[in-house]
Design goal:
With about 475 residues, this protein is α/β, with parallel strands linked by helices. It is built from 19 helices and 16 strands.
């Protein structure tokens, strides 16, 4: 029992032999510990990303990720977590090397159960005296995990902001998870049991957005055949999430500002006002401050929206989180596809941490999901990820291209082109790869003037 938290101390057991896992689990559970089991290094990293662990016991030789590789990942992302290695008699030199690299101790197989328990008790008691690392915020599990300093700051800010009923502005590149963060803030807020309503301002035509947001009454315009409740009204008591807020027209900015000031709306064609109590969270990948300076966005609306501003870091600024994210996504995809665990080849792990990820977490997730489907022999190789840029070869990975040389818009444009190519330019199939709606994809295609093969052919025939 942990004397500080009052919870049973937890141990993660890692071994590719199910029999050894069963023996260790039975022994440790009978000694009063909470036990988590993983059949390999990637599974271990996935457990660490989701559950509190006080000590890890691991085999040193495993097929998918060796003990030394796992040790390096743990030291990098979970510094201070004690590790005991289990090793065959002939592998003792490797275990000694592991001790020098940061492991706490090792035992040779077959091991004595009482000796193992004695070592565990001694290590945990010493760790208690020295003081354990501060545990990660509980919100980290919902946000895919990650222990980088920027993510720790994000977790802390989310937990402090969520209970306060203030407007929030989320700033970050496409694919960083702004909608997921908005939903999380809603979930852990006092409004969590009420509606969470999403408005895609980026893909909704300006002419329809007013009706979508504010609703209308029957006969207010052509095709208004019945009264319609707007999305703001639907969010009453809950949270209204305005995605890509920087794309709304100047007229809509005025109407939205009036709502934020009065907390009342009027449906199109109606004369009476309706009071609405909802929290507003807005998000954009644009520089709103620059738009305000240029006169494209109202300054008073900007300050109404940004009572609290949360900046979501791009993946390239927290590359130390990539192994944890990859392990978690791979485990999830394999479970969903009902297939054996996929092994991450060493060159693939190196590629993942070298690639620039212009599409951020969304791109990483989609690339790994495609890789799980395309890989052979349950081994994921760089070519399975289909992440090479145009003009690059399999031996010249996209890791060679750094974001400093690319604008954000150009990175997003290339990510869209790659998704379209994977989907044979079928937009309804490409949209899920990018994690956006079909309307949002169509908007982006027009924004970046991306030519589709079918349209080029039709244009040529019309000449």
């Amino acid at each position: 029992m942990d004397k500080m938290t009052g919870r049973p101390q937890s141990i993660l057991v890692v071994d590719d032999d199910p029999n050894i896992l069963a023996v260790l689990e039975a022994r440790l559970v009978s000694a009063g510990y909470t036990v988590h089991c993983a059949e390999g290094g990637h599974g271990a990293l996935a457990v660490l990303a989701e559950k509190p662990v006080d000590l890890m016991i691991s085999d040193i030789r495993m097929p998918d990720m060796g003990g030394m590789e796992l040790l390096k990942a743990v030291e990098k992302n979970y510094p201070g977590l004690p590790i005991i290695f289990l090793t065959a008699h002939g592998s003792i030199p490797g275990a000694v090397t592991a001790i020098r690299e940061g492991a706490v101790d090792y035992l040779t197989k077959p091991f004595d159960g009482l000796e193992l328990l004695s070592k565990i008790e001694s290590i945990l008691e010493k760790r208690h005296r020295d003081g354990p690392d501060e545990p990660l915020s509980k919100v980290s599990n919902i946000l895919w995990g990650g222990k980088s300093p920027s993510m720790r700051e994000l977790y802390d800010l989310i937990e402090r902001v969520a209970p306060r009923d203030v407007n929030v502005l989320l700033l970050g590149e496409s694919g960083t998870g702004k909608e997921k963060i908005a939903h999380l803030i809603h979930q852990i807020s006092p409004r969590g049991r009420r509606p969470f309503v999403v408005v895609d301002c980026g893909s909704t035509p300006a002419g329809l957005l007013e009706s979508e947001l504010f609703g209308h009454i029957k006969g207010s315009f052509t095709h208004a055949l019945r009264d319609k409740k707007g999305l703001i009204e639907e969010a009453d008591g809950g949270t209204l999430f305005l995605d890509e807020i920087g794309n709304i027209s100047s007229e809509m900015q005025v109407r939205l500002l009036r709502f934020l000031e009065s907390r009342k709306i009027r449906r199109i064609g109606d004369v009476k006002e309706i009071a609405v109590d909802c929290r507003v969270i807005a998000a954009t990948n644009a520089d709103l401050a620059e738009d305000v300076e240029a006169g494209r966005f109202r300054e008073d609306l900007y300050y109404r929206l940004k009572v609290v501003t949360i900046k979501v870091p791009p993946l390239r600024q927290r590359m130390e989180d990539v192994p944890l994210l990859a392990a978690r996504f791979l485990e999830s995809f394999c479970r969903e596809q009902r297939q054996p665990p996929v092994i991450l080849a060493p060159e693939t792990a190196e590629f993942l941490q070298g690639y620039n990820w212009p599409g951020n977490v969304r791109e990483l997730k989609n690339a790994l999901e495609a890789g799980v489907v395309l890989c052979k022999d349950n081994t994921l190789r760089p070519s399975d990820l289909q992440l090479q840029d145009e003009g690059e070869t399999e031996t010249e990975p996209a890791a060679a291209v750094r974001s400093d040389e690319l604008s954000l818009d150009e990175s997003e444009r290339k990510a869209i082109i790659r998704a379209l190519e994977k989907a044979n330019y079928v937009q309804k199939d490409a949209a899920p790869l990018l994690g956006v709606s079909r309307r949002a994809l169509n908007y982006k295609i027009q924004k970046y003037a991306i030519e589709l093969p079918g349209k080029r052919t039709r244009a040529a025939k019309n000449k």
